[in-house]
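As described in the Methods, two query proteins were run sequentially through the folding procedure within a single session, without resetting any intermediate state between them. The first query and its resulting structure tokens are shown here.
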Amino acid sequence: MLHLLKKHLDISGDDTKVIDVLNQHSFVEQKKLLEHLQVILSQQTSLHFTYINAHKNIEGSIDANIDGNIEQNLKHNIAPFKGLQLQHLKRILSQQAGSAEYKAQLNVTGDIPQGVDEVAVRFSPLLGDIVLKVIRPQQEIIRSATLSNRYKISLANANLAGSNAIVPTRIKLAADYIYQGFVHILPLGLDHILFVLALLLFAKRRSTLLWQISAFTLAHTITLALGIYGVVALSSAIVEPLIALSIVYVGVENIYRAQTNTTSYARMPIIFAFGLLHGLGFASVLGDLGLAQSQYALSLISFNIGVELGQLTVIALAFMCLYPLRSKVWYQKRLVLSLNVAIAIIAIYWLIERLI
């Protein structure tokens, strides 16, 4: 619910900022806000029906002759959403950010028109990327404001699991999860970006960078898999502050080792341990997305590939920016030191923010 309100009100900042803004509204204003939000969600969400019925014209449709059949594609706005309750919002506002369950269930019902062969759905951009589960265990990821796959409808058979739904291909499924893994790093994963940048700034040789990134990648791959399978589980209230602490550590250690002009492979176990923490963060994100049960391994591997591509992109962009400056006399003592200090300060702020 807070995610929706944050996007609707265009508020920047964490949940605490959203709660502060909402607390400035009266109950009447809060009720009107929720009602208005539900109307917007309903107006921006639509079902797209495909009619295939020989020689049958439906008023308001556009007919196209395809192989002797008449196909009509009609867009239907859905009935108003229901589910955003003022009582739920009051409970959220009465608790500290991070201590309440913010999930809201939106409900809508309607009738399927006669003669419909297929249906697709487009959700409101306010909902962001959507994991659509139509026929378990099949699912697909719908990117924000885009149209889903078309699903066949059998009105004669109430059991949709028996109909011929269009199941996303392995290629599309892999592409969807690679995309989600990538955007979790770039641009959404600023904490992971700073950690990777800190590893890059520490490495004076390519071999050092390679060993650090390899240790980090191996570690977060392990806990990503273990977290998704439920073998390892830690609350985000514990994981997120520890991730911030890991960034503080590498930033401060970079400053210290730059002053002593030493490098040590003893750092590898620490990087590996921090990678385990970051993997639990990735697992939390992937858990929210869900995995296609019929392609469980493919979804997991694809998401991890997306994460790695995001990390490599960050390293490549940073390397292109910094490499021409490496020969400058002020590169290590001024630029690298300043960047490490900035990383440490930002991470300290995150640590405090996530603890209070």
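Immediately afterward, the second query was submitted; its sequence and tokens are:
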Amino acid sequence: MSSLFTNNAAMTAQLTLKLIGQNLDKTNDVISTGLKIAGASDNAAYWAIATQIRQDNASLGAVKDSIGQGLGVVNITYQALNTMVDELKEVKRKLTTASGVGVDRMLIQDDLNATLSRFRAYAADASQAGEAWLSVDSSQPTYSPIRKVVSGFTRVLGQPILTTTDIDTNRLKLYDKSTANGTAGTSASTTPLAAWTTAQATYDAAYAAYTSSGKTTADVTAYTTAKGAYDTAKAKFEGDRTTENGKAKVGKDGTGGILNKEYSVLGADNNGFLKAYNLKFDTMDISTVLPNDLSKINAYISMVDRISSAMTEVAANLGALKSQMQSFQNYTEVLSKANDTSIGILVDGNMEEESTKLKALQVQQQLGIQSLTIANQNTQQILSLFRN
């Protein structure tokens, strides 16, 4: 029914066109932003969940960055230690060579000096962001042996909380400007050597006479007697040497870093007696060692073995910590990506679906405009009655 005062068809067409326009605007927003839920007004529940996950991701990002900072220090320290542990094998090889006959110990010392310089450089360069664990000065009032690094995280009431690992630099420092000497050890007594040396000299003289003469009865008797005395003296010497070596003791090590503190060690001389030494790796010197007493070189070898064991243990512990930190860092990245996926499922628009919807709404809009035009034509017909 047509009315003079109200065009119901036009009003319906106009309302429909308005709704189509609103849907068209919303679809355009989704396509332009990529979000089907851009604010709480779109879907309060989904928006709240997505916002919480975004906050969680921000926290995970901070955790990952913090772990990365600590991992950088651990990694550079670990690499320096590994390099030096490998080069310690070469140091021991050079010392073993130096204990041989007819070697140029001065030349070997030059090689060792170059290695010692490299070790100092490795330790000094193993620092990052002001953190240096291998070369320290414990005498400084600001020095703290315990360093904390972020090594992972846990969740409390759903929130990620950083966890830290304490690094005791006193256990892994290689150089410390603050050092103190150790105490002297006790060398084995060489008293048993005299009797054996005398018996050996008698035996050598009798053997020379025996082999150079016509092997007279007197020579044979002298040789046999000397040989018996020599064998007896040798057996007693070896037993007494074992006893005396059992009395040899190391003193107390000094304090400082692994590579510059004083070690109390024992080294066997050419006759097998243990001598006590207090030695430092950082000031290693074999240039004055004489061929008739290699005990100092043997003591250095013993010291290098101890240092190698200590540094290997430290490197292994740091390696385990490094692996743990890398695992947590990778885990935070996996969680962040999973959260991104969850956010996408909640708020991201389906571009294919929205594009199809946009085309349909555009067609509806065109039809709505045509419907409104037709509805307005009825009004024009009523007005024509008044004109006639």
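The first strand starts at residue 127 and ends at 128. We note this only descriptively and draw no conclusion about the first query from it.
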